[in-house]
Amino acid sequence: MIPIDFEYHRPKAITDAIKIYQALTADNKDTVYYGGGTELISRSRLNEITPQAIIDLKNIPECNTFKREAGQIVIGSTVSLTAIADTPLFPLLSNVVRSIAFRTARNKITIGGNLAGDTFYREAILPLLLSDSKVVLAGGKGIRQVEIHEIVGKGMKLAKDEFIVQILINEKYTKYPYFNHKTTKQSKVNYPIVSLASIKVDDRIRIAFSGVCPFPFRLREIEDIMNNSAESPGERARKVIDLLPSAILNDMHASREYREFVLKQSLCKLLEHVERRVS
Amino acid sequence: MNSNNFSVVGKSVPRVDIADKASGRTKYTNDLSSPGMLHAKLHISDRAHAMIHSINLKKAWEVSGVRAIITGESFPFPVGPLLADRPPLALKKVRYFGEPIALVVADTEQQAKKAAMLIEVVYEDLPVVNSPSEALKSDTPLIHEDLGSYKVQVKGVYPVPNTNIANLTKIRKGNLEAGWKNSDVKIDSKVSFGPSDHAALETRSARAEIKPSGHVIVHTASQGPFYVRKLLSQFFHIKPGMITVHTPAVGGAFGGKGAVQLEFLAYLASRAVGGKLVNLQNSREEDLMASPVHIGLEARVKLGATQEGKLQAAEIEYLFDGGAYSDTGAGISKAAASDCTGPYSIENVYCDSYCMYTNHPYATSFRGFGHPELTFAIERAMDKLAEKLNMDPLELRLLNAIKPGDTTPTQVHLNASNIGDISACLLRMKEMLNWNPDTQIMKTEDGKIRAKGISCLWKTSSTPPNATAGAVLTFNTDGSVNLSCAAIEVGQGTKTVLAQILAEKMKMAMKDIHVKLEVNTHHDPHQWKTVASSTTYIAGRAVMAAADDAITQLKKIGAVALKCLPDDLEVGNSRVYVKDSPEYGVKITDLAVGYKYPDGNTVGGLVLGEGSYNVRHLTPLDPETGFGKPGPQWAVGVQAVEVEFNPEDFTYRVLKSATVLDAGKVINPQAAIGQMRGGMYMGLSWASRESFIFDGHGKILNPQLRTYDILRSSEIPEYLVDFVETPLVDGPYGARGMGEYGVIGMAGALGNALAKACGTDLYQLPLTHERIWGSMKGGGR
């Protein structure tokens, strides 16, 4: 039961969405774009968010695209995680999103919502960071294409009036060897304590993380360490810990110490997997 | 399982409620809408222990559609089933995070919720009592300053004024000093776990209306509609005859719907709006936090045994985490004292069992009523004793198994009927699990460790001495029977089992038995509650008595029709016939509404069968020694678990889970197996992952199912179930209870299996991977 009243809009075109947003905010209405609505429902029923207007992006054709075209995988922001999990155009992405929530929720959760929502794990971003994806954004500045790295910092750097239209992935990245590993507190269906995704591009390991810090990340310095095969997996894992971009999370899902243990284990597992594969 | 000479009892007949449930057509309390019905919503505390400085309702009243807002002042009197210690809405102070403070009644649920969220409460924080051991310390702040003035509602509850002790039960049996003297080996074992939840699929729901006549009508998802009536009558001074409580099907209860909470609030809400019908339904968060929970425990068990392994002494302390109010927590601590040793024969027993107040959500009955909790403590201790004695854990249990001729901790003499056969259960489990010293710990090829753990269990019902049930039978013109009985169908299959007992007794086919699923205190005969694994026994006996009554009446009218004496007749196959010449008979159809002669003259009225049953000879426990009889009989069983532990990352999987229960008599094998599987599932879920997580201020961090972890169906192990049948002489066809038993031994069995696999003591629940990692840091196997 959502106790608040809000305006609901469902535009059919990107330009309409932008216009509606501008009109609503000009009217001083707290307005949000949304895709699947799972977070909107679960947070507003707890009174954690109280938007006055919401704009549903699911009727915009560009947001529903999901295809391979001219060497690119194009994924619209309102494509559901179930659709991505069930259509392995990018097998690593399919694997990673399949571990998010449970199927009934994945039927609703969209990739755009997973990336731009408030829940900070954003696991779907890991394969996008690894594949240097591009993102099509729409908003007050019109429609623009940016590198995923430009909008990912310690959190998402999207302007409040912007929404994700599409994600563009160079098809070559879907063909590299990959690895992903998610550890939860106990049941498989839960937030990650540590979630890793990795691909090996031209003999170099790329790796991205979720669950370790309060934002997902991929760091060159960490990849340098991971690729130094002169050192044992254990030594490399230890060094990675020192390079993390913030303190390791310490919350009800796992203590900092246990997370660090799981992270080291996961990194060693990854290195064993990747290096065994090569040799 | 033997099925000798019975035509319905002992057969896996389909559940009577299956078609409607499988097709989603069963209606639960909140499924029924009524025009003009108002809606109530709670404002709950976001502090665990604080004085309420002020409550500002101004913004809440501004929401359109709001009809009434009530706070603790609206009914400033404490209520409670055993000890009246809880105001329905917090008064002057809050004692747990999630405690209801105010209630809004509005035209729609949305308006009520919006207004409830706009209520502003100013608190003055008090120090928070986070655990029962902390609560026991003399310098800990008091949670109930007025404990000495609270009214004890049920004999046998002993609160200690000016402490945080809601109830203390003492067991003094034999001579502990002599016991220690005779002991060659001693162990000292501790366990602990915090509160968790029932997490039934259907959240609690109640609605109430007060008719202009003064008649109070309540609809509620309850395990005890008559109990709701009793408490409403007691605390609001309404004559029981002026209260009608309806309960349709209940969507899972597990003890959590035996407590009366929302019913008080729904009544007060209705009273505040001139008696209009008001509905109150918990959200999932409210159901987890605001409504009563599954109790926590800190326990210390010291055992002494001879070199041969014969138990000589047990010294036990149970500190139950009853939370902010005693509810049935005070009964749970007593029940745990009664059965404190587990099913073992020990001459010298000393136990102090406390229900402690803390600033946690308050506890109520949870499937097993203190026994899953005490069993974890005892069974971990038994495994430690076996290790110290260098004895097989199963053999140690076999050597000490309690049996006829022994006495329980409260000194009840056991005989061949009132206790099941624990040794037979152990031997059957040994066979079923291929239990031998070589297979208890095994390494797999990929470096994992497989280990088995075992737990015995027992339980008596801890029913009040006047626990009763009744049954009424009416007949339809097709000769079929309607059974009316206030046993609540919570999914456990009780209505099916009662129908089977009736069919067997009347020698009728199941298709001719119609059981009313919903219960209405206005029409149905009184029943205490549907709890304590006692319904098959108490209501089953009532059904048999009602059947006897109907049979007597049928024979009486049959004797007129067949020109003989009633004693010459037999009832069976929907007929009344002459014993020695079964071909001479008359159909029940032709008797049940009177026997009609060809000329139209009719003899006899309607056949109306009635019967009831009351437990016998139970007594409160002596306050100094615990001497007394807490229940009519003890069902016993053995459970085991096989785990696969990964020593590299400290994760584990449960591969197998097994139960052997002495059921007395299995009335419905498939249903019984289902009950055991469901129990094992629940026990494993609790033992492995379920727990509230509190911060240092008593705030619950995981009040949602996305963070309150529950075992998923994809994670369940292979289940093995078998039964032993040692008849309970006065049970229906020998049956004992079984509803709770599948849960009781799971934490003990899982803890023992994992402790073996890890080679380290595991003393805390839930047994999460992180917890095992934490205990292995100090070095394990």
Automatic annotation (TrEMBL), chain A:
Q: Under what name is this protein listed?
A: Xanthine dehydrogenase
Task: Specify the domain of life of the species encoding this protein.
Answer: Bacteria
Which SUPFAM superfamilies does the entry link to?
CO dehydrogenase flavoprotein C-terminal domain-like, FAD-binding/transporter-associated domain-like
Q: Which residues cross the membrane?
A: none
Xref: SMART domains: CO_deh_flav_C (SM01092)
| Domain FAD-binding PCMH-type per the UniProt entry, residue ranges | 1-212
- Database matches in PROSITE patterns: FAD_PCMH
Stored Gene3D superfamilies: 3.30.465.10, CO dehydrogenase flavoprotein, C-terminal domain, Uridine Diphospho-n-acetylenolpyruvylglucosamine Reductase, domain 2
Q: Which InterPro entries match?
A: CO_DH_flav_C, CO_DH_flav_C_dom_sf, Diverse_Substr_Oxidored, FAD-bd_PCMH, FAD-bd_PCMH-like_sf, FAD-bd_PCMH_sub1, FAD-bd_PCMH_sub2, Mopterin_DH_FAD-bd
Please name one Pfam family that this protein belongs to: FAD_binding_5
Which UniProt keywords are present, listed alphabetically? Answer: FAD, Flavoprotein, Oxidoreductase
GO MF, one term, reads:
FAD binding
UniProtKB/TrEMBL annotation, chain B:
Q: InterPro entries under this entry?
A: Ald_Oxase/Xan_DH_a/b, Ald_Oxase/Xan_DH_a/b_sf, Ald_Oxase/xanthine_DH-like, AldOxase/xan_DH_MoCoBD1, AldOxase/xan_DH_MoCoBD2, AldOxase/xan_DH_Mopterin-bd_sf
Specify the Aldehyde oxidase/xanthine dehydrogenase a/b hammerhead domain's residue ranges: 23-127
Q: Which PANTHER family does this UniProt record tie to the protein?
A: ALDEHYDE OXIDASE 1-RELATED (PTHR11908:SF132), XANTHINE DEHYDROGENASE (PTHR11908)
Q: Any keyword Oxidoreductase?
A: yes
Source organism per entry reads Oceanobacillus indicireducens
Protein keywords: Molybdenum, Oxidoreductase
Q: What is this protein called?
A: Xanthine dehydrogenase, molybdenum binding subunit
Q: Looking at the record's lineage, which domain of life comes first?
A: Bacteria
For this protein, the record's Pfam families field holds:
Ald_Xan_dh_C, MoCoBD_1, MoCoBD_2
Extract one GO molecular function annotation from the record: oxidoreductase activity
Oxidoreductase in keyword set: yes
